[in-house]
Amino acid sequence: MIRKINRIFQNYMREKRLKIGKWLWDKKKNKEQIKEGSFIENNSIKSILFLRYDGKIGDMVINTLMFREIKKRYPDIKIGVVAREGNAQIIKNNPNVDKIYIYKKNRKEILELSKEIAVEKYDLLIDFSEMLRVNQMMLINRCCARFNMGLNRENWELFDISYNFPIGSFHITKLYEKVLNTLGIKNANLEYDLYFNKNDKIKVDKLLEDLKNKEIFVLNPFAASKHREINRENIKKIIESILEKENRIIFIIGEKSKKNEVLEIVKLYPKKVCYPELDNIIETAYLISKSDCVITPDTSIVHIAAAFKKKLIAIYRVDNSDENNVNKELWAPNYKDATQVFSLDLEVKKGEEPDINKFDIEEIKKVL
Fold it and tell me: Is this prediction's pTM over 0.90?
C-alpha cells in the first residue's frame, strides 16, 4: 500500500515538475525562418548534434545508419553526439562521428556541457526523446542550435521542426528514415555500422585463438528488466540444445554483476561453456561479430547482431498489452538470418510484467 501511494505521489510530482520545466525552458531566441526544399542545403546546415542521452545501446547502434547516410551525402558536415559513458562506446571508433560529448545526470555538469556545446554553434540539434525531462529541456535550450528538431514537438516553442511516428505498425529504422527524408536525404541504406580498434580486439582474439574449428555461440540471457531475463532452467535447456551437436562452444555474456551467477552454470559444462570477462560493450560486439550464432532476449544485443547479419535467435514477449505486441515488430531484428521466438504470457494480469520464460524450447531446437 505504501509503495502504491508513493508511486501515485511521484507520478503527480513528475507531472508538476515537467510543467514547470516547460514553462522555464520552452522558449527560443532568434528563431529563423526555415527555407523550403532540401533542408540541409537550403538552410546552410554545416553541423548536426544528435542527442542520445538516454544511454540505450540498441538505439545508438541503429543511429549509426543516420551518421553514415548524412556523411555519404554531405561529407563535410560536422556530426556531434551527446551520449552516456555506456552507449558512447558504440560510436567511439565511428569515422562518421566527429565529436562525442558525455552526458551526466548532475545538473551542474549538464550546465557545463551546454556551455561547451553552445560555443560550437551547431546548426541543427536532433532529439529522439518521447518525453523530455526538465534537465533535457534545459540542455536543449542552452545548446543554442540554430534549429531544434524533436519527436511530436508541434506545440513547443523550443523546437523548430517536429517529426512524428510513421502511421501503422513499423520497424524503428523507418522512423530514422523519415527523419533523413525530412533533412532531404532519400533512398537511405538502413543497415547499421560498428567499428573496432586494435585494443577492442585483443581480448576476444586471444579467447578464440584455439577455437578455430569450433562453432561459436553467444548466449545472452540477461536484459535491462528482470522480467526479460532467461531463468536458470531455460538457460540450461538452451545450452543443452546447442550442445546436442559436437564441435560447439558457448560464451555466456553479461555484465560483471552477473559473473557469479554465470559461473555457477559454466561449471556444469566444463570446456563447453565459458564466461568471457569483457570490459565493455564494444568488446562484446566484437565477440558477436566473430560468432556463428547469437541467442538473446535483449534488443541491444539483437541490434549488434543485426549490424553483422549474424544468425540470431531473438526471444520476445507477447501478451495482451499493446506495448509488447508492438515491440516485437518495432524492435525486430529485421533481416533474413534472424528468427524471433515468442514467449506467450496471455494470462498476465493488467499492470504486471509478462514473463520472458514462457517460450517453447522446441522452437529454439528447430532453429539450432
Answer: yes
> Who contacts 18 (Cβ-Cβ below 8 Å, separation ≥6)?
131, 132, 133, 134
Long-range contacts of the stretch 178-181 (C-beta < 8 A, 24+): 179/66, 179/126, 179/149, 180/66, 180/69, 180/70
- The CB density around residue 345, as the number of other CB atoms within 10 Å, is 21
Q: Within the chain, what is the greatest distance between any pair of CA atoms?
A: 67
Q: Determine the residue type at 73.
A: R
112 φψ region: left (φ > 0), alpha (ψ -120 to 50), beta (else): alpha
For 51, the grid coordinates are 542527442
CA angle 107, 109, 115 (to 5 degrees): 105
Q: Exposed, middle or buried: residue 6 (CB in 10 Å: 0-12, 13-18, 19+)? A: exposed
Please state, in angstroms and rounded to a whole number, the distance separating the CA atoms of residues 233 and 350: 26
Q: What tens digit of pLDDT does each residue of 201-233 get?
A: 999 999 999 898 899 999 999 998 888 899 999
Q: Which residues, in sequence order, are CB contacts of 88 under 8 Å at separation 6+?
A: 81, 100, 102
Cell of 85: 559513458
8-state DSSP, 227: G
Q: Which domains does the chain have, with CATH numbers?
A: 2-28+39-183 (3.40.50.2000), 200-367 (3.40.50.2000)
